[in-house]
Structure formats: structure tokens, C-alpha cells
Amino acid sequence: MTKKGEPLQQGSLPRRVQRIIKISSGFNKPFFSIRPGHTASGALKKTPYTTDTTGQTMKDTIRKLAKEKNAIILAHNYVPAEIQDVAHLCGDSLELSIRAAETDADIIVFCGVRFMAETAAILSPEKTVLLPVEDAGCPMADMVTPEALKKRKAQLPGIPVVTYVNSTAAVKALSDICCTSANVIRVVESLDSEEILMTPDRNLALYAASHSSKKIHLWEGFCPFHNTLDRKTVSEAKKAHPDAFFIAHPECPPEVLAMADAVTSTSGMIRMAKESEHKKFIIGTETGLLHPLRQACPDKIFHPASPEMYCPDMKKITLEILKNTLEKESGRVTVPEDIRIPALKAVRKMMAIKG
Ligand code: SF4
Q: What's the CA gap between 289 and 343, in Å, rounded?
């Protein structure tokens, strides 16, 4: 059973989020529209590595700089293909931060959005964490502010707060425990409370609620790009690819998840595609994931559920920007200790849940 939290008033949202909601409201376009940098199938076009003034490929220059500075380059599954190809590690945000913390690198360069670099800084306070595009943000993370969460907590005294890792460090610090799209059900079930407040993603909370008897108070946040996937678009994709297996991310709306053959996280999608007997897939998440899927399974075919599932903040980074970041060690992200310590507690509590 679910109960709605305080509805988000669009006028009270940060201006940046309002702008993105406005852009995403025009998303019900024909199924086969082509985004810049994508092929007709929605795949990211391969961008040849550019050559710099010394005649080296940009990839070689970046890797050389990283070696000189003892830096590790992390790339989220949604960033452009050429960035994923030059990175030392690719994956989802928490997995990358955990793996980077285990290395002896002095510098972490996080090719992704701000909350991801913050998570790396929470887990690796002794390392320098750099975010190449300083204004690369996540509209969903911006839909919950510490002030609004404090207010809601006061209305729900004693009810534990579960916060999706796609959130700011300050919001994590006010939470009892974090969750990912992969472990959300286990996290909810681990809590010794029959009522829970979940932030910021409403769809993820509804997904957890559909697998739990607990009462989940929703926060009205959402990913503008997963949330726009609708039944009509999925029906068209299924009609176009009748023998394809449809995998959806839990950030998609419940009516879309109900049409899916499987619901899982980005890492789960890669694992599932590798292990599955199916040869064709419709992928219900941000189109950047098509690149690692095609690399992991070159003999299989992947179609985007909608080419409109395109997060502009994830696509801001270029090889040139990455090179400049390493050269100048610019874009440093730090988390003050009074926020880092409680945020780390919420992340560690989640990491302690096995299974
Ligand atoms: S895809 Fe959605 S959840 Fe991920 S960074 Fe972009 S806006 Fe945030």
C-alpha cells in the first residue's frame, strides 16, 4: 500500500529542473526520431578519436596524463561511447565509487553527474575527486532539497528515510539508509519498520511497494527521461521488434514496468543480456547503455525503447574536456565532514545488506 507524499509544486522546484520538465513534456514524438550523435536505431554513433597537436590520439594523451597523475577515470554507463572507451572503469554510479575507493589512485575523475562525484568523495575523502563538467547535474536529485526533506521528516516522526543514491550528499546525510535500483527491495525489507519514506524517485518507490507489504510514503520526484517512457511508445517498440525481450529500469513508470519481461538496474541489464538465451532486446533506460550492452554482447541486437531517453547532462562531457580536467585538475568536488560522515553512514548501512 502506498501513500502519496507532499506533491512537488513545479513553481517551487529549482529553475533548472523546471526547464528540464518543460523540455521533457514535448517527448511524445514519433518513435523513430533521431537524436544528434545517434544512429537511426538509437545507438550512439562511434566518434573517431581526435588527434592532438603532438600527433597522439586523444585517448593516448588522456591515458598518459592519468598515469602521470595516478588518476583513475570512471565513466557512468550513460556517458558518450568515446568516454566509456577511454575510462579505466565503466558501470553504475555506486559500483564505480566503491571500486575507485579500493584503488590506490590519488585522483578520481568521475565522468558522470555531480551526485556521482559526491558519492566518490564520500567514500574516498583522502582522494581528489574531479567532475569534468561542473554543471552536469541530475534533475531528479535536485527534486529533493535538505530543507524539504527535514519538513517532511517532521510530519512523519520515527519513520525511516530510504534515499536512492541518485541524490545529493546533503540529502543522503539526512537519510537512515541509501538504496540503489538493484537493491531497493532488499533495503526496504531490511528495515524494522512497517512504514518508510522514500526519496526522491516516486517510480522506484512504487516498484519497491509492489514487492513489499510495507506502507511507503512517496516523494514526488522522477527522472525526466525514464518517466517519459509510456505504454504507447513501448507498444510501438514491441510491434516493431516482436521477438525482442523487453527490459525496463525501475525509474520507468509502473504501467511501463507492467509491460516488461524483466525489470532491473543498468548493471543488471548487462548481466541479464549476457546470460540470456534471447538474441534481441528492447532496452528501457537511457540510450547510453546501448554501448556497453553491444560491447558485452556483440552477437545480440539491442533496440532502445525510445531514443528520447537521452539525458543531456550525461552527454555534456567530451574527450577535450576530460583531457583539460586531467591537465588542470579542475572541477574538484568536496563534501564537508558534517555532511560526509552521516551520508557515509547511510551508504555503509546499505552496503552491509547482503544478497
Ligand atoms: S538519466 Fe535521469 S536519473 Fe540519471 S542523471 Fe539523468 S536525470 Fe538523473
A: 28
Q: Which ligand 1 atom is at minimum distance from the Cα of 20? A: 7
pLDDT tens across the length of the chain (355 residues): 344 444 344 444 555 555 544 433 333 332 333 333 444 344 444 444 555 555 468 999 999 999 999 999 999 999 999 999 999 999 999 999 999 999 999 999 999 999 999 999 999 999 999 999 999 999 999 999 999 999 999 999 999 999 999 999 999 999 999 999 999 999 999 999 999 999 999 999 999 999 999 999 999 999 999 999 999 999 999 999 999 999 999 999 999 999 999 999 999 999 999 999 999 999 999 999 999 999 999 999 999 999 999 999 999 999 999 999 999 999 999 999 999 999 999 999 999 996 5
What are the φ and ψ backbone dihedral angles of 326, each rounded to 5 degrees? -65, -40
Q: Domain boundaries in the chain?
A: 40-137+313-355, 231-310
For residues 353 and 120, what is the distance between their CA atoms, to the nearest angstrom? 20
CATH placement of domain 231-310: 3.40.50.10800
> d(Cα 27, Cα 189) in Å, to the nearest integer?
35
Instruction: Convert 146-176 into a string of H (helix), E (strand) and C (coil).
Output: HHHHHHHHHHCCCCCEEEECCCCHHHHHCCC
Ligand 1 pocket, residue 138 CB under 6 Å: yes
Q: Is 245 in the pocket of ligand 1 (CB under 6 A)?
A: no
pTM to 2 decimals? 0.86
Among 93, 313, 315, 317, which residue has the most ligand 1 atoms within 8 Å of its CB, making it the best to mutate? 313
What homologous superfamily does CATH list for 40-137+313-355? Answer: NadA-like (3.40.50.10800)
Cα of 225 from ligand 1 centre, angstroms: 7
Please state the atom number of ligand 1 nearest to the C-alpha of residue 112.
5
166 touches ligand 1 (CB under 6 Å): yes
Cα 312 from Cα 301, distance rounded (Å)? 25
Nearest CA to ligand 1 atom 6: 311
